[in-house]
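Minutes, project check-in
Item: structure for the 172-residue chain
Input as provided by the requester:
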Amino acid sequence: MSSKPAFADTTFECIKAGSGYATIAVTSEGAKTEPLITWNSQAMAGSGFTPQRRCNEVTGRLNTVVANVGGSFSDVLLTTGSVNGMGVVCWVNDEQSGCDGSNVLVTISRGNDPGKFLANLVNRRANPFEAGVAGSETTARTVVRFGQFVEQELAAARNRPSNKRPSGGRGI
């Protein structure tokens, strides 16, 4: 067993998935998770933020988070807050930290509840509010242990036979 952090050589990618897009994690060995976050809503498309653009931007921000935490992603949480009067989902390292301009992953369209948005952001198959992944919700904000969730998904991806194919194999 390696002592190297699970995220040391992991990146996030935005892929076409069904009628929308999805953010997945990919290990340096080529193992791919199932979609972690799905992007299907057209709610902000009128302002230029199509599902594809949101997927690409948030996926890039997640790659920045990995770089900022030095490859140790297990303590990364997603939470909700407000920045410049808009509801946001951001990443933090502890439940006491909040959202500011430097840690925003996605801005939520006006009229949507940030907690509900975060609860629905993650694919239903891998919902962090279900048993096995710690999540909590309060009236003030929602917190999801996203780093632990992604590490569990990476472990599952490494063990799936379909992820153990030689390079040049069938892509998604």
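Outcome recorded: The CA atoms of residues 30 and 75 lie 24 Å apart.
No further action items on this chain.
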